[in-house]
Amino acid sequence: MALPPIRVISGKSVFCSFLALLASLAVQFFSSQFYGRGG
User: Fold this and answer.
1) SS3 sequence, 1-39?
2) pLDDT confidence tier of residue 20, bands split at 50, 70 and 90
3) 4 closest CA partner among 13, 21, 36
């Protein structure tokens, strides 16, 4: 099985980490909006 180039792997990991960061920010934002009002 041929492995994809390192460039592709690093790009995918960067993209996935970026998506994870956006997801965590969205979760924090929505939880503060709905559950953390006034706090």
Assistant:
1) CCCCCHHHHHHHHHHHHHHHHHHHHHHHHHHHHHCCCCC
2) very high
3) 13
